[in-house]
Amino acid sequence: MHKKWILSLAALVTVILLSATAGAQNYPKVRELRMDRQTPPQGVACIECHRQETPGIFADWAMSRHASAGITCLDCHQAQPGDKDIAVEHEKYYSMGDMPMGEKQYFVPIAAPVTPKDCSRCHPDEAKQYSKSKHANTIEIMWKIDPWLNQGMNSDNERKTGCFYCHGTVLKMKDGKLDPATWPNVGVGRLNLDGSLGSCTSCHTRHRFSVMEARKPETCGQCHLGPDHPQIEIYNESKHGDIYHAFKQEYNFDSAPGAWTPGVDYRAPTCASCHMSGSGKQPTTHDVTERLSWETQAPLTVRPQDFKPFPSGTDWQVERDKMRDICKQCHGNAWVDDHYTQFDKAVEEYNEAYFKPAKAILDQLYEKGLLDKSKFFDENLEVQYYELWHHEGRRARMGAAMMAPDYAWWHGFYECKHRFNHFMEEARHLIETNTKAYRYPDFPNTGGDTTRPVEIFGKQ
Ligand code: HEC
Ligand code: HEC
Ligand code: HEC
Ligand code: HEC
Ligand code: HEC
Ligand code: HEC
Ligand code: HEC
Ligand code: HEC
């Protein structure tokens, strides 16, 4: 950070900026601020009062590139006429004599949620790309395919503390306030009251809104982990992850947006380098579905354009070439070609040797009435089948996609074999003895709401 900023907002703010930055190592002790335009008194009031009331929020904002560019609280939080999410109670602070600038004359209505639509005023390209992505549209995708939700196999609270934390809630108002059942939430597909999808803070936490943070793998790892999509574990195990951990002090994570250069700023890629950041001929994208040639999270691996619940509208070969361009900043053609050959082979073997035979026998059991179709997860074979594709089947495919041998084999195909054999043993036994499968009579904590959100699907 070698830039110098000149302050012209107010003497008071300078003092606070000094104290806000003291202690941060990567910044000069004195950081001045140039406001390119006049901040109206209402905007100064936000800053002054919040500096005292919520110093953490103030300090984050003061350290952001937004503050350097003169983007203030008002630019993001000021409510527009007709907004449904206005923080009605906030008005009361404007009659609090003990708070800085707590006077009626400075009042403007504000909203707490700041949505992709709000950011799109200044960042239209990022918002548009994001809106097409699976990140933004994940609530729709979940409700189209997920048995936990569609059959009410878990409780509403299990979803709120689990699923919707990562995927996003449908924001609602209750008694003039944001409904605590839906807020706070920064899931990737949050449906906002202005109709926009997502929350940019999933990767750029407020109020720093930093590209540096979004470029680091830990940011993605908040959601991309665990038994069913262990991308952060896979990454940490790969050579790329090893190098990241060994050399990250030398990486320049803070280079200007769009100018993060392989070889110069980093020597091995992070999640963002491969999936989002610009590199070589490839521009930055906020649509993480770009650069993908397979749907390796689906039960049967298909091309993204053939994924029925949410066809990508892309051509898999074009997308693969984009990803290859990224690899070729640091690798030769043969290295990259051979990697994809192995990956394709892993996908084919998973589909043919594991998934299709398991699916065929499951269908047979339903047909013969030996398994009950009315509920999923309440019979052992359904759980086994689910874990075969949803857990180890994904780990095998994704381990192969992202160079993690332990996930491809020990947590992947090895466990697929194990699961498959047990699954087949029980399935065959039921068929041979013509016995109905045991049903768990007291499946715990079911009953979550099974109505698809009308805000997305309309009235059913
Ligand atoms: C006179 C003091 C004061 C002023 C001026 C003020 N705020 Fe606040 N604001 C507060 C306090 C106090 C809270 C509540 C903090 C808490 O929950 O403890 C708050 C809460 C908020 C919230 C969260 C609201 C919610 O419902 O969760 C936002 C967003 C916010 N302020 C933004 C602004 C913006 C933008 C401005 C300028 C237009 C502004 N504030 C001006 C004192 C003030
Ligand atoms: C670049 C846009 C932007 C600017 C500038 C901005 N905010 Fe925010 N603010 C956000 C976003 C995004 C959130 C998270 C809300 C959400 O998830 O929709 C947020 C949340 C908040 C909250 C609630 C957070 C909490 O943890 O309770 C408060 C209070 C708040 N902002 C105050 C301020 C104040 C005061 C300023 C100016 C010093 C400011 N904001 C500047 C975008 C902004
Ligand atoms: C009023 C215009 C405006 C709004 C609204 C706005 N931004 Fe920005 N944003 C800017 C400007 C200008 C810059 C460039 C600052 C610079 O390069 O110094 C910027 C830079 C950024 C950066 C790059 C920061 C970095 O580390 O280089 C991110 C990320 C970002 N904005 C995200 C957001 C998000 C998310 C929102 C909505 C919550 C938002 N912005 C709302 C104007 C805006
Ligand atoms: C820790 C965060 C997290 C939690 C908790 C979580 N998910 Fe996910 N979910 C993800 C991620 C990340 C993916 C993307 C997987 C991939 O592409 O590898 C995903 C994928 C999915 C998919 C597949 C989407 C597709 O395009 O095929 C569905 C459906 C889904 N989740 C539903 C749920 C449900 C229902 C719950 C709760 C019962 C849940 N998730 C809990 C993060 C989470
Ligand atoms: C899944 C994580 C993620 C989400 C969610 C996300 N971003 Fe980003 N964003 C990134 C990454 C990674 C970069 C850095 C690209 C690079 O290396 O230059 C970035 C960069 C940016 C930049 C700098 C300019 C550029 O395009 O490189 C802006 C502005 C920005 N994001 C705005 C937004 C807005 C607005 C939203 C919400 C619509 C959003 N981001 C949501 C990951 C994310
Ligand atoms: C707040 C949680 C969250 C964060 C943070 C997050 N993701 Fe995701 N991501 C998800 C969920 C949920 C899905 C599944 C969406 C679906 O398919 O319905 C997903 C899907 C994906 C996909 C698969 C897209 C497809 O078309 O199949 C990729 C690639 C991806 N994320 C990359 C990233 C990267 C890179 C980052 C960090 C820069 C990141 N994500 C950060 C939750 C998150
Ligand atoms: C070396 C580049 C590289 C790195 C680093 C990387 N990925 Fe990947 N990722 C890939 C490739 C290649 C694929 C398979 C793409 C395809 O389908 O052609 C993939 C697949 C995925 C998928 C599955 C998408 C689907 O629908 O099948 C997700 C999700 C994902 N990556 C997320 C992440 C996350 C999160 C990180 C960091 C923890 C990460 N990736 C790190 C290259 C990378
Ligand atoms: C920023 C540079 C960079 C990018 C981009 C990059 N890699 Fe790498 N990759 C490396 C480095 C450095 C190594 C370590 C080579 C060694 O072992 O000396 C490596 C190692 C590998 C390995 C060997 C892993 C092992 O354990 O032996 C494979 C396979 C690989 N990369 C494939 C890819 C693919 C495929 C892509 C694109 C999806 C990609 N890389 C993108 C720098 C990069």
Keywords summarizing the entry:
460 residues; mainly alpha; two-stranded antiparallel sheet; 1% strand; globular; disordered N terminus; binds heme C
Which helices and strands appear, and what pairs or packs with what?
Elements: H1 11-21, H2 41-53, H3 55-62, H4 65-68, H5 73-77, H6 116-120, H7 124-132, H8 138-145, H9 147-150, H10 156-161, H11 163-167, E1 173-174, E2 177-178, H12 211-215, H13 217-221, H14 231-237, H15 239-247, H16 271-275, H17 316-327, H18 333-367, H19 380-401, H20 405-433, H21 454-457
Antiparallel strand pairs: 1-2
The structure holds heme C (8 copies).
The site of one heme C (HEC) has 19 residues, from α4, α5 and α6.
Can you list the strand order of the major beta sheet?
Answer: 1-2
What's the helix-strand series? HHHHHHHHHHHEEHHHHHHHHHH
Give average pLDDT, whole number: 92
Name the hetero compounds present: heme C
Q: Give the percentage of residues in beta strands.
A: under 5%
- Characterize the biggest β-sheet: 2 strands, antiparallel
Intertermini distance: 54 Å
Shape: globular
The count of DSSP E runs of length 2 or more, i.e. the number of strands, is: 2
Oligomeric state of the chains present here: single chain
Give the helix tally.
Answer: 21
- Which structural class fits the helix and strand makeup? mainly alpha
How much is the radius of gyration in Å?
A: 26 Å
Percent range for helical residues?
40-55%
Low-confidence segments, ≥5 residues, pLDDT <50?
1-36
Protein name: Hydroxylamine oxidoreductase
Pfam family, one: Cytochrome_C554
GO molecular function: oxidoreductase activity
Organism: Pseudodesulfovibrio profundus
